[in-house]
Amino acid sequence: MADASLTALYQDIILDHYRRPRNKGTLEHATISVPMRNPFCGDEITLELEMNGDQISDVRFTGRGCSISQASTSMMTEMVKGKHVSEIGHIGERFRAMIMGDADAATDDALGKARALAGVARFPARVKCALLAWNALERGLAQSAEQNTAETRDTET
Amino acid sequence: MPYRSDFPLLVANPALHYLDSAASAQKPKVVLDAIRDFYETSYANPHRGAYSLSSLATARYHSARQRIAEFLGAVDFEALIFTRGTTEALNLLATALSVSNIRSGDEIVVTALEHHSNFVTWQQAALATGARFRICEMTSDGRVDMDVLEGMLNTRTRVVAFGHVSNALGTVNPVSEIVRLVRERSDATIICDGAQGAPHIRVDFDKLGVDAYAFSGHKMGGPMGLGGLVARRKLLERIPPYQFGGDMIEFVEDQSSTWAPLPHKFEAGTPNAAGAVGLAAAVDYLDGIGMERVQAHEKALVALAQSRLEALDGVTTYGPPAAERSGVLSFNVDDVHAHDLATILDSTGVCIRSGHHCAQPLMRRLGVPATARASFYIYNDESDVDALVAGVKQASTLFAGTIAGN
Fold first, then answer.
1. Is the pLDDT of residue A157 over 70?
2. Is there a single domain that holds both residue B379 and residue B251?
C-alpha cells in the first residue's frame, strides 16, 4: 500500500488478531457480562469477566465488528487477564492517550502489543472502534466494584 | 465531466471521488452565490420591519417558497412549510397528529425500509398515544411487500408513513400503488419521506396522492439546515402548531392565542430565509439540467458500479434490480468490514458511507451489522466508479483470508 498512514493502521499484528481473535467465546463462570455497542457503526461486543476480588482471573468476548474493534478487543483481553484493577486503570488511561494522539503513550512499554494500534490516532472516525473494548472493560470493572461493595455491605449487616 | 465544474469543492479537489450524496450533496456555485447575494443585498429579518429592506428580504423568502413548491409540483405554495429538514418535518407531522388525530387503538403503519427519522418518530408517537405500531416487512430484494401491506390496512389505520426512496438500499417505492391500496382500505393520513426522492426524481406532489411529502434541501444541492414539507392544505389546517413563538401567531390573549394562516402557523421564530433562497437556486440548477437527465445519469452510473462490483469475487450487493433503484448502491465485500473498507477507500480519495445508515431495523432484516454504501449524483462520472472498484480490489487483497464478523 502506498499510503503510509494506512500501512500503519493495518499492521500485520492487527490483521492477525482480527483473523485469529484471542479469548473469543464465553466464560462458564463469568461474574460480569457487559454488552457494548458502537452506535456509529453498529459494531457490538459482549465482554465477560471472571473476577476474583479485584483481579481479573479470566476474560472472554463475543461479538462482531471491524478489524480495529475486534483486534483491539482481542489485544485488550490478553493484556488484562490476571491483572489487578489498580494496574488496569493505568494501562487503560495510557491506551486512551495513545489513541487520542499522545506520542509518549505510543512508546509506553505498559501498552505492549497494543501499541500497534497507535496508527488509529490518524483516523478520527476509527477512534471509537479502538476504544469500544476499553469502554466495555471500564463499565465491567465499575459493575464489579459495585458488586464488591454490595457484598461487603451484606456481610456487615 | 460536464457538471463537476459547477461545484467549487470538487473543482478544488480534483482527486476526490465523492460518493456520499445520499448523506449530503455538494453545492453548485450558483447556490453559494445566491446565499451570498441575499446577505449582501437583501438581508434583514423577514416579516418584521416596516422598512423597505425587510420587505425585500420578505419578498425573496416568499418567492423562494413559490419556486420550491413549483419544483415539487405543489400549486398551493402556502402549504409548503420550511423546517430544518426532513427529520424536523416528520417530527412536526408526528407530534401534531399525535395531539389531534391518533388515539389509543389506532394503527400506524411504516415499512421495514425506513430511515430512523421516519421510524422512531412513529414508534414514539404510537407509544405516546397507545396506538399500535405496525411494520410492513420487505421482500428479500428490499422492496415493500405489497401483499403484506395490503393485509395490514384497515379502518383503524390512522397513519401510513413510508419513504419515497430507501436511503440504505436505493429502492424506489411505488408511491401511487401504495396510495391506492391505503385509500381503498382506510382513511389514513399518508406521509411520504422524500429525503432521497426529491433530489433525484421529479416529484409531482399534487398528482402523487400522498397527504404530506417531506424533503431535505441539503441533499439536493441546497444549504444545510433548510428543508420542509409540502402537504394538503386541509391537513395543515386541521392539525395544531408544532412550535410556538414569533411569526406564527395571530392574536395573543392572556390565557389563549390564535394562529397565523399557512404557512406561518408552522414556522415559529425567525425563518431561515437565506437557506430558502439557496435552495431555490439549487432547484433552478436542477431544473436547468432537467430531473429526467439527473435521474438517467445516476441510474447509468449505479448500474455500471453494480455490474463491475458484482464481477469481483466476494462482493454482495443489496436491494432491488437497477431498474427499481435510485442512485444508491449498498454492498459488502467478503472478509472486509464496511468500516475498514471505507477507511481504505478514503485513503484513495473515495468517500463512501459505512455502517447502518440510520436504518437499524432494515440492517437486522438483511442480517448484517453494516454495509458500505456508494451514492451517486449529477457531478459523478465513470472515473468515480473506476476509483471505487480499484479501492474495493485493494481492500479485498489486504484483508484476504480474514473472516469478517467472526
1. no
2. no
